Amino acid sequence: MLTKEDLAKYPFLKQTASFIENKGLDLSDLASDEYSPILARAIRRIRNSIEKYIEPTDISDLDAEILSYPLALALVYGSKSGWLVNRFATIEAKRTEEELRKEPSEKLIEIADSGFGWKVSKAELKLEWEEFGFSISFHNFLEAAPGFNSSQWKLVNRYLCGGQVFLGAGSLARLICEAFKMKILRRAADKEMLGFRLPEAFRPHLEEILEAAKEIRQDYEEIPRGLIADAMPPCITTIVNDVRAGKGLSHMARFTLTTFMVNVGEGVDDVLKLFGNVADFDEGKARYQIEHIAGMIGSKTKYRPPKCDVLRSFGLCVGADDLCREVKHPLTYYQKRLRATGRRGGSDGTRNRKKGV
Ligand code: SF4
User: Fold this and answer.
1) Residue of 255, 322, 324, 329 best suited for mutating to test ligand 1, as the one with most atoms within 8 Å of CB
2) Ligand 1 pocket by C-beta < 6 Å: which residues?
3) What is the 3-state secondary structure (H, E, C) of the chain?
4) Which atom of ligand 1 has the smallest separation from the CA of 323?
5) To test ligand 1's pocket by mutation, which of 307, 312, 333, 335 has the most ligand atoms within 8 angstroms of CB?
6) What is the pLDDT along the chain (357 residues), one digit of tens a residue?
7) Is the pTM of this model over 0.70?
């Protein structure tokens, strides 16, 4: 049932590996002009992951799409950057998940089998609150589920019967993607990969990629650790004042404050301390949420605060001092204020970003 388009969508299938092998190409062959569309697509895949952009599978040139994956992976492994490997694995897994969510049941079962040798069966289990269309052996389930931190993925919280774990289509898609992501990450730690050197012909491309990654990391990380209170934008100052006064906060206000704090380098305990005055404060729950937002658990994605126009629509922009009129994001405000007061140099954090995740 698997088509050539499927091989392009799902690089972890054994049929995809055979297709690539049958081409009989060496990694260094792909550096020649003849294969420049493949190299261009590989670079685009990596840049997408750096920018957290989930681009649908490009089916306009299936050969280039299929072959671009191993080349992109080689460039990423050759970079020796754990950050880049992690970012690439995360975005490729998310792209795959979007594709899997559109697949019919039979194809999902075939993909799980071809990709990871999992024996998934169709099921018809209807509980009061949920429907499960699939079952999978608990051994297979445990190959990927520990990658999730959410308690719903713990075996004790799943419906388990006769050694089979019951799942809905969305959960099966997530499980497959997590297995794909883990495969990329584990391979990066292989002895063979640690010694891997990229052919010289790709060096200039790798340097460009690393430069793009560096810029993004500067935006995200080059803020000095720890909050500098007098550089905070007015929206954040207001939320901080409210929280200190023990006022109830909307979900969006809590999310904005937490994301802002973790992005300016405040530790989990500092953020927790800040929320200590809130009436319904539950330390366990709050710690879990902060760690999740900081990318320490779960999807391992560090969340950014919402942009100004989003905050405006939630009534959280109390704004508009002079600097507010120049920015579109509270973190940019903070960075500009730091620079203006001589506490930070470098990039101003603005970027023409595509769809984020
Ligand atoms: S303009 Fe942006 S930075 Fe300024 S207060 Fe409004 S949301 Fe905050």
Assistant:
1) 324
2) 233-235, 308, 311, 317-320, 324, 327, 330, 333
3) CCCHHHHHHCCCCHHHHHHHHHCCCCHHHHHCHHHHHHHHHHHHHHHHHHCCCCCCCCCCCHHHHHHHHHHHHHHHHHHCCHHHHHHHHHHHHHHHHHHHCCCCHHHHHHHHHHHHCCCEEEEEEECCCCEEEEEEEHHHHHHHHHHCCCHHHCHHHCCEECCEEEECHHHHHHHHHHHHHHHHHHHHCCHHHHCCCCCHHHHHHHHHHHHHHHHHHHHHHCCCCCCCHHHCCHHHHHHHHHHHCCCCCCHHHHHHHHHHHHHCCCCHHHHHHHHCCCCCCCHHHHHHHHHHHCCCCCCCCCCCCCCHHHHHHCCCCCCCCCHHHHCCCHHHHHHHHHHHCCCCCCCCCCCCCCCCC
4) 4
5) 333
6) 899 999 999 999 999 999 999 999 999 999 999 999 999 999 999 999 998 888 999 999 999 999 999 999 999 999 988 889 988 999 999 999 999 999 999 999 999 999 999 999 999 888 777 789 999 999 999 998 877 767 778 888 888 899 999 999 999 999 999 999 999 988 887 877 778 889 999 999 999 999 888 877 665 545 555 688 889 999 999 999 998 888 888 999 999 999 999 888 888 888 888 887 776 677 888 888 888 888 777 666 778 899 998 999 899 999 778 899 988 899 999 988 988 876 654 333 333 333 333
7) no
